[in-house]
Design a protein that fits this description.
This protein is an alpha/beta fold and 552 residues long. The chain folds into 3 domains: 181 residues, 3-Layer(aba) Sandwich (Alpha-D-Glucose-1,6-Bisphosphate, Chain A, domain 3); 231 residues, Alpha-D-Glucose-1,6-Bisphosphate, Chain A, domain 3, CATH 3.40.120.10; 134 residues, Alpha-D-phosphohexomutase, C-terminal domain (TATA-Binding Protein, 2-Layer Sandwich). The strands form 6 sheets. Strands 2-6-5-3-4-9-8 form a 7-stranded mixed sheet, sandwiched between helices. A 7-stranded antiparallel sheet has the order 20-21-24-25-26-19-27. The longest helix has 15 residues. The model has no long low-confidence stretch (mean pLDDT 96). The structure holds alpha-D-glucose-1-phosphate-6-vanadate and cobalt (II) ion. The site of alpha-D-glucose-1-phosphate-6-vanadate (VG1) has 18 residues, from loops.
Amino acid sequence: MKIISKPTSAFNDQKPGTSGLRKKVKVFQQPGYLENFVQSIFDTLKVPAGATLTVGGDGRYYNRPAIQTIIQMAAANGFARVLVGQAGILSTPAASHIIRKYHTYGGMVLSASHNQGGINGDFGIKYNISNGGPAPEKITDDVFAKSKLITHYKIADLPEIDIDHIGETIFDDGKFTVKIIDAVQDYADLMQELFDFTAIKKLLASGFKVQFDAMHAVTGPYAQEIFTNRLGAPITSLMNCVPSEDFNGGHPDPNLTYAEDLVKIMYAGDRAPDFGAASDGDGDRNMILGKNFFVTPSDSLAVLAANATLVPAYATGIAGVARSMPTSGAVDRVAAKLNIPCYETPTGWKFFGNLMDAGKVTLCGEESFGTSSSHVREKDGLWAVLFWLNVLAAKADACGQAQSVEAILMAHWAEFGRNVYSRHDYETIPTDAANSVIQHIKAQFESLPGQTFGSYSVKTCDDFSYLDSIDGSISHNQGIRILFEDGSRIVFRLSGTGTEGATIRIYLEAFEPDSRKHHLDAQVALAEMIQIALLISQLKEKTGRDTPTVIT
Ligand code: VG1
Ligand code: CO
């Protein structure tokens, strides 16, 4: 095995965002682009002797060549072994599990998650540390700094590795090994340890109908193993389960706009199944639907927290919960009742890792269709689906009759009140226009407090900062908050995962204690607040946009 040091020129745009480095495939295809970033990661890590690297991705276009390059560079940078998911595929939560289960030094997860794929779509790369979670900011900041100064990268002249067949390839008398693994079994085993599969199997056999949409993305094989092989669900309850390099031309984002196949089925009146779910490109997001009913991700987290003791893995209770700042306060109410701590972190899963490692929290979630627990250090789409099914099975009556998802939500709101919630996204806005919206709001920080807009009075506003109580690090500029006297709020943030222009996200939340109003559509209930958000931000005037691209 010959190691070559190749000269390269630095790129100045390799700053990791909310979840790794995401760019158009064509950007990643530039000579040296992927290599520079990978070398900058390896230089930051100072890889110890004998270390193993986990590698896999969501199967999107460019996954395969990128994996070959990473294997060759891992060999040249001192790794002794690389574990690769069969066919190069590892869902994000499965990658996290593999890193933890086999105690690998870290992992490269190749994904642009919910972003579109294909040759004209997006690609992405993220480094996860040995706890299985995304590298914290102190590492990603260092990687970015190194990427701006890089002059050479190291690569070994290895032949192309067959990543489609389980097995091991050994080089240089065992100095370097590549092992192709079947992560589906490892992941399914973990799920079977956490949940009551016997009860879920019984629920599915009782006529309770489930529909799961893998959106042509990575969870297809995992869903087939878990739902069909292990839980006995009929094959017809799964759809779009063959991973495709361009997600069949779709947008693998499980929300009411992009998961339209599933939404049609779940809103088909009486004929609709009892429970529907979808996951995203890399399998870490989940959308939960009932018969003609949508569960807001923030509410889903709260319902799971409130019912956690019905699940074997959490039967003795949960230590605490955490949510990202823009996520609604629904879970805070559950935490208060359970008398457990609730942490508020910036957007992105990397901020939950320290709290989980320190044993402070068991469940975490984000409004962006992400929920998980300390079983891994990533959000986990199928885990959330199984959690819901376990709760539904445990709540079924003596005759095996399950409650509807809607009934579970109504009962939850009756007990805790409802945090009415919605997010409006304005995508592909010219960067200057998006920045001017944010600047315009910030310029009003001093004048807004005390002002009244219709039925809402502004209490305070700020740009959210987070102090990590475990490692003492501080993250600034994590989103603008306008907090009203009655506890309602509007949050404005620029997305850190897009690859074209800017995306403005407006998060809206109002508390409704009155159960006579709990059935109201969120857009109706929040109508006044939506107008206030547009008035304060001048978004329409500054961007020329009349309506959001996506409403969740
Ligand atoms: C979005 C979500 C955020 C999530 C991130 C990664 O980030 O809002 O909650 O953690 O995507 O999810 P942003 O910066 O665009 O708002 V995934 O499933 O794309 O890895
Ligand atoms: Co994702």
